[in-house]
Amino acid sequence: MNKTSRAEIQGLTLAITRLSAGGKSAQEIQNYFECELLLSEPKPTSPSKKPAKRKRRKNLKEGILKFLTAQGKKGAHVKVIAEKVGSKAANITAWIFSTGKKVKGLKKVKPATYAYSK
Questions:
Q1: Are both 109 and 70 inside the same structural domain?
Q2: Domain containing residue 108: CATH number
Q3: Please, are residues 100 and 106 in contact by the beta-carbon 8 Å criterion?
Q4: pLDDT, tens digit (0-9, with 9 covering 90-100), for 8-24
Q5: Could you tell me if 32 and 67 lie in one domain?
Q6: Per the count of CB atoms within 10 A, which of 26, 52, 73, 116 is most buried?
Q7: Mind listing the pLDDT tens digit for each residue in 19-46?
Q8: Residue 85 belongs to domain spanning
């Protein structure tokens, strides 16, 4: 016999209450739930799933600074940095505003354009 969860029982109770308030007879309510049971497909049970492996985080600092060093004084736009490093532009921007503040030599050249010099 399948165990019925508390949420399922509460849902069934609510459905019965609504049907009876709608003027349905006990036989009509029973027929409704029998049809629901016949139409619903049993949920497949899977034996203990293994947790998904997490991807290793890319080292943004090394990638960003290496790319900006190669660009020189003119620097590079955030979108270009993101393409070359293989990350999202939003991640590059967030890195610059958080960790990038602590990096000496990282400077804003133009809007959304940064340069790095040692």
A1: yes
A2: 1.10.10
A3: yes
A4: 777 777 777 777 777 77
A5: no
A6: 116
A7: 777 777 777 777 776 766 656 655 555 5
A8: 60-116
